[in-house]
Amino acid sequence: MKLTGAQALIKSLELEGTEVVFGLPGGAILPVYDPLIDSSIRHILVRHEQGAGHMAEGYAHATGRPGVAMVTSGPAATNIVTPLCDAYMDSIPLVVITGQVPYSVIGTDAFQECDTVGITMPVTKHNWLITDPADIPEIVREAFHVATTGRPGPVLIDIPKDVAIESMDWYWPESVDLPGYKPTNKVSTKLIKDAARLMGTAKKPVIYAGGGILKARAAEALRELAEMTGIPVVTTLMARGAFPDRHDLCLGMPGMHGNYTAITALQEADLLIALGSRFDDRVTGKVDAFAPNAKIIHVDIDPAEIGKVRRPDVPIVGDCRRVIEELVKAVRSDLEKRHWPDLIPWWSEIRTWQRDFPLYYEQEEDGPLKPQFVIEKLRDLSPDDTIVASGVGQHQMWASQHWKFDYPYTWVNSGGLGTMGFSVPAAIGAKVGRPDRTVWSIDGDGCFQMTAQELVTASAEQIPIKVAILNNAYLGMVRQWQEMFYEERYSEVYLSPDLPDYVKWAEAMGCVAFRVDAPEDVAPTIEKANAITDRPVVIDFRTDYREKVFPMVPAGASNSDVLPGPTPNGAK
Amino acid sequence: MEQHHHILSVLVENKAGVLSRVAGLFTRRGYNIFSLAVSPTEDDRYSRMTVVVDGDSSPIEQVTKQLNKLIPVIEIRELAAADAVERELLIATVKASAEERSHLIDLVSIFDGQVIDVGVASVTIMVAGTPDGLDAVADLLAPYGISELQRTGRVALPRLIRGSRPLKAVKSSEQ
């Protein structure tokens, strides 16, 4: 069967199980958009290519399946570099297809030509420039394989226009042959035993759960391990929901804006069981001072993460779920043989911290609206399995702190790269992947202005997401740092509460929109928003610009020097 | 052999852009390459890169692990100086009057070198040797006046008797 390169590409995507492509056509990708008309694949026409990339990420976050985006060459390709880098940092499986000028004119500075493969090399797990249409099925298979196996990540396929037009003899390769790509699939029994033995001697152990738990679909295995051993669990920003917040053993989020107990438990631990986490600087604070008395068991699918920041006592390379399942078996047999130390003294220390240093803020009845209050109301008035997508900054930290994530794959955020503007398109992608779920974008006013135009996409494509803008009229996190570390010298952080008019703007984009200033209006407005299911909703919450995110470990400081912020009884 | 230098012998797929991927990885991770030589191998599907890495800027374990993540990288061996044979080629154009020329030829022949081009007042010589040996050659040539000098960067293979220390015999991820 003869197919054009473009037809072969679309057919290959279909065979890889692609149900939706986020994209925007243009000159070089034109041939590929033609067979899309006859395809079973749903295409979502974005308003900016960055939006296509973040939507594909949101889709992947919520479903675990690779997100697919397709854009043209040149400026479209450069516009999608940010989502690629974001996905690379957070290990999100993406397959991005870019058009390219005809192969015959590559290198001549043709119209809308750029070196897409060169530009995206450092932000993709791998990328391909197709030079022969006969290679298309093979490369698409390789691309999906690389994106979704081992440590997941983004890949890019660059297809020149003439390659898309030329014809090829259709085939579908049975398997992928990449001699230089062999992700780990065996787990060392000896190391598992070593890990179990170490766990069985620890008096102050903590499970330090990272995003790898979610990537490996290991939430249930993690729960079994924790419940079997009674070891407390912290969930990093990338792992929120991997272990239920309402579970007794859950200490919540550690790190720069983690809660006091999670930070301090890591710091005081004598054993950290790091599962799919990477000792990120936002978690460790000053590395040399991090968890000084702790032995380390480090489990990661990526060998390069082992020993990158902190040398472990027991290094285990492997898929988190398989490793944890093996660990559960080893722990069970170890528990039969030996008596493990009593964790009651450790738990009583932990309970004291939890009692003295809970997350805390005060909402005065007539006072300005507190962002934390808005998030708690959103949480309490929305279904438990609501998916929350956030941008980057104060609102992100408050959302992570104050939401109760009891289900995996309900928290969609930009952790590693910290991409402002992530929330709205990511929420759209998540809603496309999980149309059965309520999806709230919790966004800041600064972030919202970066990618809000994708609400046009949401309206046009009938993707009814909800957006809560925590509008404090500032680039709030930068303001917080200027207040605390730059002697209150505020430089270029003021945005204005009503320029733009968020309600009019949202309405102009086809959304239902509300504005809320007073605490008593928060709940009724959220209820109204939750009742609307046929189009996007935006609520402009005017929040107190003076509110800061606490606790806080100042950049470069030790986690022992965490600033707890206000406490209910003034504990220090 | 310089103490903080490590020799990595990297077998890669012989495809467009592979050098760029390897070089880009070094840039992105802040590693320094001391020298780099790339050539085809006995099997035309693969090329071999001999990379000499500055161990001070680049923790060698991280360098190899990160390199291993590149999909076109098939195999990496770290060659300890004692376990490797290494050679480098030097060519240099040296000022030499007619009467100096025979001295120079004698000197070069001590190092098994050759004269590969002769001009009116200068000659171009070629010497293959160990990096240390070539340093000595360059020092000895200096008094004559070197007008141009180029070295290839080293190539290396494991010694046959003692064998190499393969970090990864095939690319896999045992610890």
The poorly predicted ranges of chain A are none
Shape of chain B: elongated
| β-strand number of chain A | 20
Biggest beta sheet attributes of chain B: 5 strands, antiparallel
Overall number of strands of chain B: 10
Quick one: biggest sheet of chain A? 6 strands, parallel
Kindly state the percentage of residues in helix of chain A.
Answer: 25-40%
Distance between the termini of chain B: 28 Å
CATH architecture designation of the largest domain in chain B: 2-Layer Sandwich
Helix and strand composition category of chain A: alpha/beta
| Relative helix content of chain B | 25-40%
Mean pLDDT of chain A: 97
Q: What would you say this structure looks like, in words?
A:
The complex is a heterodimer of chains A (572) and B (175). By secondary structure, chain A is α/β, with parallel strands linked by helices. Chain A folds into three domains: 2-169, Rossmann fold (3-Layer(aba) Sandwich); 189-356, Rossmann fold, CATH 3.40.50.1220; 371-550, 3-Layer(aba) Sandwich (Rossmann fold), CATH 3.40.50. A six-stranded parallel sheet of chain A has the order 3-2-4-5-7-6, sandwiched between helices. Chain A has a six-stranded parallel sheet with strand order 11-10-9-12-13-14, sandwiched between helices. With 175 residues, chain B is α+β, with helices and mostly antiparallel strands. In chain B, the strands form two sheets. Chain B has a five-stranded antiparallel sheet with strand order 2-3-1-4-10, with helices on one face. In chain B, strand 6 (114-118) and strand 7 form a beta hairpin. Chain B is elongated, with a radius of gyration of 19 Å. Chain A binds chain B through residues 117-118, 121-122, 125-126, 129, 146, 178-184, 186, 188, 191, 302-304, 306-308, 315-317, and chain B through 12-13, 16-17, 20-21, 24-25, 28, 61-62, 65-66, 68-74, 170-175.
